[in-house]
Amino acid sequence: MTTPEHLDVVIVGAGLSGVGAACRLRAECPGKSVAILEARDVIGGTWDLFRYPGIRSDSDMFTLGYPFRPWREAKSIADGPSILRYVRETAQEHGIDRLVRYRTKVVAADFSTETARWTLTINRRDDAGVVTSSTLTCDFVYSCTGYYNYDQGHDPVFPGIESFRGDVVRPQFWPEDLDYAGKRVVVIGSGATAVTLVPSMAETAAHVTMLQRSPTWIGVVPGRDKLADRVRRLLPANAAHRLIRTKNILFGLAFYQFCRRWPRAARKMLTGLSAKALRDPEAVREHFTPTYDPWDQRLCAIPDADLFEVLKAGRASVVTDHIDTFTSDGVRLKSGRELAADVVVTATGLRLLALGGIEPSVDGRRVKLSDQFLWRGAMITGLPNLAVCVGYTNASWTLRADLTSRLVCRVVNHMDRHGYASVVATPDRELDRRPLLDLASGYIQRAIDTFPGQGDRGPWRVRQNYVLDAVATLRGDLSRQLVGTPRSAVRRSVPVGQGG
Fold this sequence. Notes:
Its cofactor is FAD. The chain has helices at 16-28, 46-49, 61-64, 80-93, 192-201, 226-234, 237-261, 263-278, 281-287, 306-312, 397-418, 442-445, 466-475, and strands at 5-12, 34-37, 100-101, 104-112, 117-125, 131-143, 148-153, 167-169, 184-188, 207-212, 218-221, 300-303, 316-320, 323-327, 330-333, 338-340, 343-346, 350-352, 361-362, 365-366, 374-375, 379-380, 386-388, 420-425, 482-486. It is α/β, with parallel strands linked by helices and 500 residues long. It folds into two domains: 5-150 and 351-489, FAD/NAD(P)-binding domain (3-Layer(bba) Sandwich); 155-346, 3-Layer(bba) Sandwich (FAD/NAD(P)-binding domain). Strands 1, 2, 3, 4, 5, 6, 19, 20 and 23 form a nine-stranded mixed β-sheet that branches. It is globular.
């Protein structure tokens, strides 16, 4: 019987988070053997998978980028190819690309309390597409797959869609050969993907209509940060990056707190800015004034007001209505209006998926994630030696992702210092359960019950405050809620030449 390969730490996913995690582990836990298991063929995650027109970040790159590698390009709100290039260059510079095992998908994970190790069942796909299954073991698992289902989006049923003679496409699976030049396009949706697609497609389409059931809050932001440009001219790259990053973190936090504490004032401010940019207060009242308060759902950023610019130019329009049925030539609405279309894009959102679809078990017994709690936004009760990367909903994903990666490094080093073979997050008293992601967005509400919850206090709360989280993550006591098992209490047999 062949003994499975053993590693100290396995990172699942080679996207923005996974590359950052590996950089942190290499720097802060230099003696550990680390591998990244990536189901796809390349590094990049979201930024390689999504290739629809105009794809871009909705956070500034000084906070979406890594704190240890300055963002040097001109645009603060960057396009997808620029972000992908940044992630891959970071991986190459830090030697992370050599740690990635491509076409390797984790399909099962079981923790043994006897050996204090995870056994991962993995499927590897070769050049011919043939899949072989094998196992490996590791001391610690860090899931950096995000919380979206990248294989399947949210697909509502549209009556009569089979009768439509044009093209129906999903942004998640954008066809490379789709030609929409000179054609009439209807984009169904009002979220970040829709407001990105509309101005981009309007450059060559005959006309683009954004069809929404209800409005979404829009925030007009500059594509370039002029203050950042001045700072970068005056200071060395690393110092400039830290200063701009700090400025943007504090501004984003202040704006979020303003919206949550004074929602009426926030509504007035956002509608006022939209009316100024669009120059049509009536259109703003009808199409860009939601019934919910700002930050009950995530705001959509439009750099340099590009969506409003194509609306003013007449190359695009917005319709707020419900779909009655598709027809052979387009979409008929509940109001009776018909939208002619050659191409329909269903930007109706993604589905959530915990741990990339892995259902973890301990000693062969499945641990139901929805019964568990998250400690410091990272470690799940009932699952030893496992952490998950969950970004912020009110700020850049990478802000929390990087904190979580640094926390993982602290936990791994804490285990070594205390001679622990395993640690598991355990509350010292009963917690009141709250949803992990506290937003009213439909894509969250549809699946949040399948995720671990957050508690009502202390390290069991998943806060939306980077400043407080940074202090707690980097300086907080790890001993109070992490229950350790000494190495002397477990049975291990480590083959020569393998980590452990």
